[in-house]
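Researcher: Next entry in the queue.
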Amino acid sequence: MKRTQLAAALLVLGLTACSDKDAANQSVLAQGMTQTVLDSLGQQLDVKYEVITNVPGTHCGEGKDRCFKAAIHLTHPEDFSASDWSIYFSQMRPVLKVDSEQFTITHVKGDLYRLSPTEKFQGFKAGQQISIPFVGDLWQLSESDGMPNYYLTSGELSPVVIASTKLHVDADTGMEVRPHVLPFERAEQYLRRESDKLKWSDAGDIYTANEQTALESAAVAPGIIPSPSSIFVAAGAAPVDMSAGISLNWDSSATQADKLAADAALLRLSVLGVPAADGGLPVSLSVDKGLEDESYRLVTGQDGIKIEAAGGKGFNHALVSLASLLDTSNKTVAVVTVEDSPRYAYRGLHIDVSRNFHDKQQMLKLLDQMHAYKLNQLHLHMGDDEGWRLEIDGLPELTDIGSKRCHDLQERSCLLPQLGSGPEADVDVNGYYSKQDYVELLQYAAARQIRVIPSMDMPGHSRAAVKAMEARYHTFMEQGKEELARQYLLTDFEDKTQYSSIQYYDDNTLNVCMESTFVFIDKVIDEIAALHKQAGLPLELYHIGADETAGAWVKSPACEAFVANNDQGVTSMDELGPYFIERISHILEQKGIEVAGWSDGMGHTRVEKMPAESQTHLWDTLASGGHKNAHKQVNYGWDAVLSSPDVLYFDFPYEATPKEHGYYWAQRRNNSQRIFNFMPDNLPANAEQWTDLEDLPYEADDTLKKDDKGNVVSAPIAKGKGFIGMQGQLWSETVRSDQMVDYMLFPRTLMLAERAWHKASWEVPYRHQGAVYNQSSGYFTPEMRSAQARDWQRVANILGQKELAKLDIAGVEYRLPTPGAVVREGKLFANTIFPGLQVEYRSGEGEWQVYTPGAEVSLPVAVRSVAPDNKRRSRAVWVGQQ
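Model: Structure for this entry, 882 residues:
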């Protein structure tokens, strides 16, 4: 082959022979990048992301006491000097400064950044790493902060995902692996500042914590999750055999609706191996109108099972409890008498499908598990900055554009990539529910006694809608149809306001001064209500979000004119947010729909201008005095739902380690036991058992406080008022796959159900006269703490020995706990948070073996837990010598 042919061939591959390096690279620069070269660069370029430190120092800059230092490392296997390219990547925290002459990092929008070579770029030398250090705002404390799918662009060429940044899936655990993120190995990578006392959890710490929960079998057979109000266990009675199935006998007063309500529970029993069958164990179901709506009685015995309830909900709950009572290994139930009623009427789970989409099948599976544990509210978050997930008749742009992210900088065909979604639209994190999908979800949920609460966030967190309606505007303007173009417009194009939302957008807020905004909202609500009507389920509650509005509108001509005209009693820009929420609340009220919103936005309203029936979701952090705002809104008489991030955000890590997935802004260790320990009726009392984000004690003052003018600043809950329920939250910024939905939700959701359904006897009673709670205040007595520990031991054993196996049967890929373990004098001792789970170990890179207590091992040794069906393993952890 001639020298020129060789150079051309190597150029096509994006490579150069050493002797022809200069000529080939000059050719690339002269001709511009080709698609073949860009494709090759995407395959060969190795990207590594490293968090260097989170402890602030001089690198933060003058006067700044919080920042992190990180670096992007680039390596190419061959010499390569072309510079006509850029890398787009998601960076969860703002880049403040870049310490590189060869590269710049530019903020595009939200978490999207562009890394580009400068004129001083010297090219890649074969195998030599180029590092681009930078300083970012706040912290990056988890390896899951490193977003995947960096991609290359060059002019009009098709974008190319850099292969080294694609996610992998671990074969044993089924979990995401980010091969480009360098592992955390040093304390300064995990501490927020020098005063941060939170210990990076290791196998020894977990072992010590788990030692408080012993293996116990006696409580397992009669165990029901969530725990019933009362249960009597017949001592010494032989278990009831249900292997032949069950045969239902309804009394004559039962209605067809009662029987239909039981169908989903019967299906669950069938899935667990106990179908309805002629000749099966008789189950008699009798109506008792003296019972409350959701209450029931359940009696099991050798001659059959007896159930009493007032109607369909009670019958359903009784049969679900029967399924929980069931031991799937031998198809038996204990002989018990149960009387049961729920603690709260509202027992909810919030799922964010906007940031990353999760399809109908995943939601159906989730509804099955909500039903299995008596949760009854699915708060479905379908509209936010990063995506709009529901088809709306007459507004196709919402899903044609707003349901997908891709590399279209003009955003005429899709939204900009965010959260590591990459440049292509055809990926799993994009998508939406069709109208028929949504109707099916509503009906499926209703059959399981679950109400679906639709949520499209507004006026902030609305970028997907804003950009979709801007694209609609441009389309109609190009057709000369200005009236149609402006019909649903959400943007004042003359608005010069500069702001940054909590997710770093400067264009994510509806303009509340334009009537077209309210025309749009009215249209959306009417279309969603129509889908509920089609499903035969009237829309009763609509969640508007109303949170985190980021200082928009102040330089909007539309808002300046609106305030000047004063038609709506708005006299300043500060009143625009409350005005919007109040107006939307009354629009909903006129349609017979109750408004719901997050507590920060709802708290900005003028209470006298809100409908009497309003629901608020309380998400103030407890460690920062969040009980005060919660109590204030309870005292307004609103329907108050606990959503406390410290304990009820399930996108937070299970354990205090950067190896665990999730955000961590309110809590870095939120495992199942912590949720079980929650005392929801007495929020401030949790200060006696918990610490803050940095593992420091905090104080919760729940006494009456007034300002200098005698106005009440904060006060205890008034007698006769309280919370209507509690709700777990899964935000999906770091949750891309269905496997990650399962991992983050389960088994924590079972403990959400436990606390929402059952009030434990060890909880500190609320003091309406007020009190101050801290680590030494003493309201949470030693006797209460001991009772809590015994109760947790009971529940943990039920999960480990009976309930997790049911999640296996349902195909739920829940988080298997990392075991605790120590090595003493060459012998291994291991345990798990759920006693009864099998543990495996290996020394070095040897074969995995079944753990037996005191097994002789040689360091290094790793341990992992095993699912009851033996199909999955936990993340392995290494064990130290003691």
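Model: Confidence is low (pLDDT under 50) at residues 1-31.
Researcher: Noted, moving on.
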